[in-house]
Amino acid sequence: xxxxxxxxxxxxxxxxxxxxxxxxxxxxxxxxxxxxxxxxxxxxxxxxxxxxxxxxxxxxxxxxxxxxxxxxxxxxxxxxxxxxxxxxxxxxxxxxxxxxxxxxxxxxxxxxxxxxxxxxxxxxxxxxxxxxxxxxxxxxxxxxxxxxxxxxxxxxxxxxxxxxxxxxxxxxxxxxxxxxxxxxxxxxxxxxxxxxxxxxxxxxxxxxxxxxxxxxxxxxxxxxxxxxxxxxxxxxxxxxxxxxxxxxxxxxxxxxxxxxxxxxxxxxxxxxxxxxxxxxxxxxxxxxxxxxxxxxxxxxxxxxxxxxxxxxxxxxxxxxxxxxxxxxxxxxxxxxxxxxxxxxxxxxxxxxxxxxxxxxxxxxxxxxxxxxxxxxxxxxxxxxxxxxxxxxxxxxxxxxxxxxxxxxxxxxxxxxxxxxxxxxxxxxxxxxxxxxxxxxxxxxxxxxxxxxxxxxxxxxxxxxxxxxxxxxxxxxxxxxxxxxxxxxxxxxxxxxxxxxxxx
Length: 503
Prior knowledge:
Elements: H1 4-13, H2 17-29, E1 36-39, E2 41-42, E3 45-48, H3 51-66, E4 71-76, H4 86-93, H5 101-108, H6 116-122, H7 129-137, E5 158-163, E6 172-176, H8 177-188, E7 193-198, H9 204-222, E8 226-231, E9 239-240, E10 258-259, H10 267-271, E11 277-280, H11 292-323, H12 329-341, E12 345-346, H13 355-362, E13 366-371, E14 381-386, E15 395-400, H14 407-415, E16 424-428, E17 449-455, E18 458-464, E19 477-482
Helix pairs in contact: 3-11, 4-7, 8-9, 12-13
C-alpha cells in the first residue's frame, strides 16, 4: 500500500506507519457507536450549584490560588472565521437572490459591530450593499482594500466595542476575542496570569503582534503580569485521507494526502502544559466586561470543585498504597461509594470491585465541566455511557456528539437530554505524587469521526481524531456541574455578534 517515498514522507511528518495503517483500517471498519445508557440530567449525573454555594467555592479557590497554585488557561484558537461569514460570502459571490436574512441583519445593524469604525475608515460607497459586505469579508486592512475578516482567525476578530480612553461618549475601540480571553484570565488566573493559545502557523505572527499591542495596557489595568504562550497543531497529528473505496487518496504528484485531525489533536498540546489546574474554553465564547461576573464566579467555583475532588482522591490513594495488601473491607467500601457517588463511575450491578479496580478509577486526570441548559444550539451533550477502558459494562459520564449515537436510539437518547456540550472545562492533570499524567493513555481511539469531503473536484473521506472533550478525554474522571446560561455566548456566525450578550 505504501511506497518508500510514502514512508519517507511519513517520517518527515513524525507519523508512524502503524498509525497510518490504523487510520486506513478505521475507514474500512468504521467507528462503533457509543454504548449509551441514558442522558445525564440534574440529580442524575449533573450537579446543581446555587449562587450562594458558588460564592463559597469561589472563595475557597481564591485562597488556594493565593497560596501558589499553578493555573493556566488553554484556548483552542486556530479555527478560521470563514464559516462565520459563510452567508456574506454567498451574497458577494452570487446575485441579489443570495441576499439572505443574515445579510439583511448585518446591513441593518452595521453600526453595532465592533469593527464598524475600521469599516468607516476604509471609506467607499456604503450605499452599495454588495460593496459593504465585500469590504467586510474580503481585501486587506493594511492595504486599505477591505477588512478581510473572512480570512482571519476568530481570535483576531473584534467582538466587542468599548468607549475609547479619553473620550466623552464619542468613539469606540474594538476588543478581539483573544483580548477578551486575556481579560478573563486576569480575573481568575494565578500570578502571573498564564494563558496558552493554539493557533494556525500562518496566523502565529498576527496573534503575537496583537498581544504585543494590548498586553501592557491590560496588565496595568488589571494589576497582573501575563505569561502568554502559543503552539500549533502538530503535523504528526494529521490523519490520512482515502478515496471512496478506502484506498489512500493521492494528489496529482502522487503524494498521500493528509488533513488536520480536528480539535482532538490538541490533546497533545494540552499534555505539554505544565500547570496544576488548566481551564479550557473555546475562543468564540466570550462576553463584554459588564457580563463577565457570572463567568468569573463559576470559573472559580468549578476550579474549587476540581481541587476538592482531587484532594479526596489523593487522600484515598495514599491510604490504599499505605495499606498495601492489607486494605480493609471498610476502606474498600468507602472508596467504592466515593467512586460511584462523587466520581460518577458505576460498576456493573453485582460486580465486586477489587482494590486494583478502585485504584485505577482513582488514579486518572480529573475534569469538571460547566454545563448549560440546551436552548436549541446544535451539538452534543452529556450522557451516561459504557466505559471503553477498565471494567467491562461499567458506566461513566461522557460527552457525545449526535454522530456517535446509534441512529435507531438517537432520537430517544438526545430527546431525554436537557444540557449542552460543556462551555467550560477545568482539568486537574497531576497524580497524587505530583507528576503530570500522560494524557495519551486516557484517549479512546475508537471514538473518531469520518466525514465526506472533496479536493480538486474529487471525492474523499476524511477522519477526525477523537474530539478533545469527547473521546480524547474518554477515560478521565468526569464531573458535570450546571452553570448559568449567561456563561455561554458562542459566536458561530457574524449575526451572533448582534445578540444582546455581545453588545
